[in-house]
Amino acid sequence: MKKILQISFWLIILAGIIVIFGFAVSEQKKTVCSGLVINLKDAEQPGFIYEKDVRAIISQLYPSLRGKILDSLNTAAITKELNRSPYLKNPIVVKTLNGLIKVQLERTEALVRVVNSKGDSFYLSKEGYVMPISRSYIPKTLIVTGHIYDSPNPYDKLIYNVNGGTASKKSILNKIFFLAETIINHSVFNQSIDQIYVTDCNEFEMVPSSGDHIILLGDVENLNHKLENLNAFYQAGISKLEEGEYKIFDLRFKDQVVCKKLMP
């Protein structure tokens, strides 16, 4: 008898929960949207996109959210539309019990600016995505020029990276991203390298901020080792050279930094 009473008790509790849940769902279907709240990380800082731009993207789907039945608003569709923007990442869109649509998201940050052989410019983000140039915001980044023939569409959302990218492995942008990311994260060269040039052999040359010499890097294979050699040379070897005598430092040879004079 005691066991039957226990089972009956839990069945009553379960039935009550189902009734309450059903009532909540029924009430939610009647709830109207009371507004849109956007939480854009670091919105107070200059950037490619602002809260008003996020609202404009959402208004393309729903010109007016306020007053609409909350259940009729598709948060997955809003998330997908925000994800299409090359200036936004990690959008989270939820409905609240009091009728709000809440949006939480971040800006995409530029890692490097690329100028292709046609003179067209675009950025690669810190995740390896393509970002179009903006007239309203120009971040300070590395600049890469030279024999670059890619003209990627930022809305394709391809990732350029030699390590696990989704773009074609043949694209030079994969190596550009890898090189730029390595330099930006380097404790020495993140402040001293300003520009990178791609040669017609798909090799890389780097120009330091001093502008008084050129660094022939070659391919990005063994990149960290090459940069270690260059750093060691700067610390110990360069002081032994006559100032301004050598204008080219060549890292293409294993475990060597070959110094060359410019031909007259």
Description of the structure:
The chain is an alpha/beta fold and 264 residues long. It folds into two domains: 35-107, Ubiquitin-like (UB roll) (Roll); 110-260, Rossmann fold (3-Layer(aba) Sandwich), CATH 3.40.50. The protein has five helices and twelve strands. The protein has helices at residues 2-30, 51-61, 75-84, 172-184, 223-237; strands at 35-40, 88-95, 100-107, 110-115, 121-125, 130-132, 142-146, 193-198, 204-208, 214-218, 248-250, 258-260. Strands 6-5-4-7-8-9-10-11-12 form a nine-stranded mixed β-sheet, covered by helices on one side. It has a three-stranded mixed β-sheet with strand order 1-3-2, covered by helices on one side. Helix 2 crosses helix 3 (75-84). It is elongated. The model has no long low-confidence stretch (mean pLDDT 87).
Query: What's the assembly state of these chains?
Result: single chain
Work out the helix count: 5
In spatial order, strands of the major sheet run: 6-5-4-7-8-9-10-11-12
Work out the count of structural domains.
Answer: 2
Q: Judging from the principal axes of the Cα atoms, what is the shape? A: elongated
**SS-based structural class?**
alpha/beta
The CATH H-level homologous superfamily of the largest domain? Cell division protein FtsQ/DivIB
- Beta fraction: 15-25%
Q: Based on DSSP secondary structure assignment, what is the total number of beta strands?
A: 12
Mean pLDDT, all residues? 87
Order of helices and strands: HEHHEEEEEEHEEEHEE
For this structure, the CATH topology of the largest domain is Rossmann fold
Radius of gyration: 28 Å
How far is the first residue's CA from the last residue's CA? 107 Å
CATH class bucket of the largest domain: Alpha Beta
* Helicity level: 25-40%
Uncertain segments are none
The CATH architecture name of the largest domain reads 3-Layer(aba) Sandwich
